[in-house]
Every structure is written in structure tokens, then in C-alpha cells.
Amino acid sequence: MDVIKRTGIREKLDIQKIRTVLENAASLLKEEKNIYQKEFHYEEDAYDVIDIDEILQDIEITLFDGIETSAIFQAILHSLLSRAIDDPIYDAVAKNVLLQRIYKQAFGGVYSPKKAYKELFINYIDDAVDLGLLDKNMGSLFDLDL
Q1: What is the DSSP letter of 60?
Q2: Rounded Cα gap, residues 91 and 85, in angstroms
Q3: pLDDT, tens digit, 9 for 90 and up, residues 87-121
Q4: CA 91 to CA 83: how far, in whole Å?
Q5: 33: pLDDT confidence band, cut at 50, 70 and 90?
Q6: What's the rounded Cα separation, in Å, for the pair 29 and 36?
Q7: Residue-wise DSSP of 22-36
Q8: CA distance 97 to 106
Q9: What is the pLDDT of residues 66-79, one digit of tens each?
Q10: What is this structure's pTM?
Q11: How far is residue 47's CA from residue 84's CA, in Å, rounded to a whole number?
């Protein structure tokens, strides 16, 4: 089965990419220091409440040959938001899926905000040194990869 990317390119459907989006969105709950665990009174980590395999099964039902990636994105959100009626943690996961999409559109890849800011800062320093806006020692005096 093929998907059509927003650039018009056809490529083989990779369910693992959808799984990665969902796992990244769910793992951002952990980075948020489990505020959802406290807010919704979960006894376990909020991340552990999310059933990614079940969400994937919902999404796979809607897939067809030649589906556009934007339709896959809509299917992901639909699956998450339909679950949010019964469990608000899925609303938080949907929010994180949207954040990933924004970062992908803005920065050209799937990022967490922490990773995006770090990489963009390092690129900014490198570009500023190359343009002569910053001293050439800026890149060598500081370990920016920490």
C-alpha cells in the first residue's frame, strides 16, 4: 500500500512511522512530569494508560492505497479524540501529535521542543560564526552538544 506525501511523492506505507508519532506524543507526557497523572488521578504513569496498539488498529481500518499523509494525520487525531470522550489523557496525546506536526512543518523533522531548540541554537551559532556575526571561537570554546 502506498501513501502520497504532501510533496506529491508516492512511497510505501510504513506503519512504524505512525507508531513513532504516537509513541513520541505519549512519551511527551513523561517529559511533562506526569502532570496528567496528578490532574486526572491516575495511579500509574499517564504514559502507561495509552494503548498505542489499539489506536493503530483504528487507524489501519481507514487506510487505503494512495491515501494522503494529511488524511493519515486526520485519522490519528480522530482516533485519539474519540477516545478523549472517555479518557481525557487522549486529548493530551492529541495535543502532542499536533505539536509534532507543527515542529515537522516548521523545522523539517519530527522533534520534541527540547530537541528542536537545542539543534536550532547550535545551527544558529554555526551560521552566525560562518557569517562573521560571532567570533570564530564561539563554536570551539563551548561544548554546544551537551
Answers
A1: H
A2: 9
A3: 888 888 899 899 888 877 777 665 666 676 777 78
A4: 8
A5: low
A6: 7
A7: HHHHHHHHHHTTTHH
A8: 14
A9: 999 889 999 999 99
A10: 0.70
A11: 14
